[in-house]
Amino acid sequence: MSDLAALTAFRHALHRAPEVSRHEAKTARAVLAFTADSAPDRVLTGLGGHGVALEFQGAADGPTVLIRCELDALPIEETGRPDWVSAVPGKGHLCGHDGHMAIVAGLAFALGRDRPARGRVVLLFQPAEEDGSGAAAVLADPRFAEIAPDWAFALHNLPGLPLGAFVVEPGPANCASVGLRLVLNGRTSHAAEPDKAVSPALALSRLIPGLAALGQGGALTPDFRLVTVTHATMGEPAFGITPGRAEIWATLRTLTDDGMQALKEAALHLAGAEARAGGLALTHDWHDDFAASTNAPEAVTRFRSAIAAAGIPLANGFGPMRASEDFGRLSAAARLGGAMAFLGAGETHPPLHAPDYDFPDSLIAPGVTAFLRVIRDLCG
């Protein structure tokens, strides 16, 4: 691939300068500068935040095909030491979004040289994937109606799968998840007079195992539920005060959106019962809200056929990911359906979100090739 050296260098430059969700302004500008010579027929910026959409139009009528990648990095200190290590303390491209951007930039190069024969292709560099807010913001942007897709496709690299092999299956691809923050408010007192306090200690001690018991994981069947308590705090760091306030954070995870609604109701019911029993005021809020990502059968057929025709290996037997992916809302918005594929990063590669993770550069070429074959099959 003649563009590979440039795309690899671009990936390394992005890796050195990570920006987290909703702060991807410099990354968006870098994408625009790097793809400028491809001369898209239309460019949308500031889409749903810092999102960028590049549109390439065909001469004849046809479908709108959207290919999505992600702009954001993670608030994790990188411990690996590639030559292109993050230059931003406490932040790193430790999920591979830098590689995904390089792949989609490669599509811009190819489409700039050879427009689709029919329809149009939209390359979406989506903001704020990691906190689950980006796709919803893009869909809520009034300009999204101008690029509303018939088909939507995305990929995510996946350590644990053979290097360079694709997996794309119909049905559930990624779980729904949401963060729940519970705040219990009572009344403090002197530590010598705990009888004069309304302490959240007992409620907190019950909620930690109680929430976890609502979803204990297991097989990824339609009734899969998992609740992970991720943070808890109570009172002040002092020995003289009986606590009057506590927080507990938990991530709720299900295979389906319907299952998520039921789990949310169960979690709030449990928290409310414990608060009432302890004479506590309860407030709650939701964070990092990811819809389930479900692959449409026809979109999967198109994707698998393109991958096979390009001579790229397809792996089988890999089920849905427990991890969430913000592509679900965009896929659901596609008129004819969407599909998320997983591209193997190697069976012994460090896992996603690990501090020593780095995207394998060898995945750029098969990623570009697979997407480009999908585009040519649908748009000529």
Overall pLDDT level: 97
Percent of residues in helices comes to: 25-40%
Percent of residues in β-strands: 25-35%
**CATH class (first level) name of the largest domain:** Alpha Beta
Main β-sheet description: 7 strands, mixed
In order across it, which strands form the biggest sheet? Answer: 1-2-4-3-5-15-6
Instruction: State the secondary-structure class.
Output: alpha+beta
| Radius of gyration of CA atoms, rounded to a whole number | 23 Å
Task: Note poorly predicted spans.
Answer: none
User: What name is given to the CATH topology of the largest domain?
Assistant: Aminopeptidase
Spatial gap, N to C terminus: 20 Å
CATH architecture of the largest domain: 3-Layer(aba) Sandwich
Query: How many helical elements?
Result: 9
Domains (count): 2
- The CATH superfamily label of the largest domain reads Zn peptidases
Binding site for Mn(2+): 95, 97, 130, 156, 353
Keywords: Hydrolase, Manganese, Metal-binding
Protein name: Amidohydrolase
InterPro entries: Amidohydrolase, Bact_exopeptidase_dim_dom, Peptidase_M20, Peptidase_M20_dimer
